[in-house]
Amino acid sequence: MKIGLPKEIKDNEYRVGLTPAGVNALVNAGHTVFVQHTAGEGSGIPDEEYVKAGGQILDTADDVWQAGDMIVKVKEPIAPEYPRMRENQLLFTYLHLAPELELTKQMLERSVTGVAYETITDKQGRLPLLTPMSEVAGRMSVQVGANCLEKINGGRGVLLGGVPGVPAANVVIIGGGIVGTEAAKMAVGLGAKVTIIDKNLDRLRELDDIFLSKVQTLASSHFAISEAISHADLVIGAVLIPGAAAPKLVTREMLKLIPSGSVLVDVAVDQGGCFETTHATTHSNPTFYEEGVLHYCVANMPGAVPRTSTFALTNATLPYALALANKGFEQAIKDDAGLAEGVNTYAGKLTYAAVAESQNLEYTPLSSLIDLKATAA
Q1: Catalytic residue among 96, 198, 233, 295
Q2: What does pTM read for this prediction?
Q3: Which helix (H) or strand (E) element contains residue 357?
Q4: 180 versus 270: which is more confidently predicted?
C-alpha cells in the first residue's frame, strides 16, 4: 500500500502522524511511505531520519495526499485540506466529527473512508488510541491551568500548592477517566486540594484507592458540581462520551458561582466541550473570559509538547496502521471488531451512530455496507 504522511497545518500543531520507527515498520512490511518535506520538524525529526527509515520525501502536501492510498495524520483535516481528499482514500487520524459538521459533509461528499483514532476500541471496550493523548492532555491541563492562574496571565494570582500558612488551591476535576486521573496525579503532586466528580461510583471507589484518600470524590449531579466549583480556583473538564458531543455540565449561570479570576480548562473541547461557554481556541490565542472566569479551550493541547506526543501516539497507532496496510481496509475491519468501531465514514455514508445523532444526519450501520464476519485464516 502507498501511505502518505503529510505535515500538520492546524494552528501551532507540531505533531506528526508517524515516527521514523513507524515508517520503517511499514516499509519493512512491503509498503511505500511518502513523507512531506519537514513533516517531522516540529517534533524534532528531520527529513534525514525518515529517509534512513526508508521513507520517500515529497515536496508538497498536494503531492503526499495524491500519492497516498492511506493518509496517516494526527488532527482532523481543516478547510485547505478538504480538496485534497479523494474518493475511496483511507484517512487514519483523530477525526472528532461530532462538532465538525462541515468536515463530515466534505468526507461524505468525497466518499472518504474515515477511520477515527478516538472511536477504535480494544477487547476490553477501552479506547487505546485516545489513551496516550488523554494522558498528555490530562497532565498538561494542570500545567496550563497553574500558568493561567498567575496574575500576569489573567488569573486570580493563586499558587496551586500554596505555602506554609497559606491554603493550597482548590482544583475540581469533572470526569474520572484517563484525563481526570492524570490531571489529579499532577495536581496532587503539586500540593493542591483536589476534588474529582464522576457519575460512576465504582470508578470513584477506584480513584479513592489509587490516591489513598488524598483526593475528595463526589458523585456527579448538578448540585454537586455547582457546590464544588463555587470555591474552585481551577476547574478541569475531562468528560468523554466516545464519538459524541460532550455534555454541557457547567452552565453559564453556574459560572457566576465561581470566584472571579478562576480558571476553566476544557479538555473535552475536541468534542464540543463540557462547559456551556466553551469555544475552541488555539495555542496562539488560547484563553478568553466569560462571566469573569478565564477559559483555556485549546483543541489540540498535546500539540504543545509534540515530541512526547508524537512518540506516544505512534506507539499506539502503529499496530492498527500495519493491520490496515497489510490486510487492506475490509479484511482488517473484519478481523478486528474494535478497529471497525473506528470507521466513521465509508462509501459516502455516516457509519458512527453518535456522530449522526449529534449532527442530525442519517446513520448507516457499517455492517449494512460490508459483511463484517471474519473469514477463516
Answers
A1: 96
A2: 0.85
A3: helix 353-359
A4: 180
